[in-house]
Amino acid sequence: MIKPVILFDLDGTLIDSTEAILEGFKVAFESFGSVVPSVDKIKNEIGHTLENMFLTLGVDEKRVSAHVHAYKMHYRIISCQKTILLEGARESVIEASRFATLGVVTTKTGEYSTILLEHMDLMGYFDVLIGREHVKNPKPHAEPILKALERLEHDIDSVWMIGDT
After folding, report:
1. Under a CB-based contact definition with an 8 Å cutoff, are residues 153 and 139 in contact?
2. Distance between CA atoms of 89 and 136, rounded to whole angstroms?
3. Contact 14, 68 (CB under 8 A)
4. What predicted TM-score, i.e. pTM, was given to this entire model?
5. Percentage helix, strand, coil, to 5, in the chain?
């Protein structure tokens, strides 16, 4: 019998990296002498790609890549210390791994997702991780889910996606 597949979103489902994200945006905006958007405005964009977040928050398209770079340089330093595992997440992953093949599908990059999951001692439970750089069309588009299933060599039967985007 083929095991079912459970794919997890990362932010807001397994982890909370809000503090790290907010600090990364603050540093990125301040490094270019820009006014930092309100916490609520930034929080409303979490779950979208960094590029789209900066555009929505008013950064000129020509300056988005520089802002993303500044964000990532700071986020790399603080992400593990300012990201927490959500209550019940570890137990849920461990229990699900007993009867299903697990994966992560996220708009974070695979690099940062792997670092965070290893820091939380959870990476070993996942057979696939699809990050922003692995697809042309990030969530909520179906491409990341389909890419995960392709890597797992699993069809769309008995697949569950758990997350908020």
Report:
1. no
2. 29
3. no
4. 0.87
5. 50, 15, 35
Residue 98 main-chain phi, psi, to 5 deg = -75, -25
92-121 pLDDT tens trace? 999 999 999 999 999 999 999 999 999 999
The answer to whether the CB of 106 falls within 8 A of the CB of 10 is yes
Give the CA radius of gyration of the chain: 16
Q: Where in the chain are the domains?
A: 5-16+84-162, 18-78
Tell whether domain 5-16+84-162 is in CATH 3.40.50.1000.
yes
Could you please state the CATH topology (level 3) that the domain comprising 18-78 is classified under: DNA polymerase; domain 1 (1.10.150)
Q: Which amino acid is located at 45 in the chain?
A: E
Orientation angle between helical segments 18-31 and 64-78, nearest 10 degrees: 130
Determine how many CB atoms are found less than 10 A away from the CB of residue 98.
7
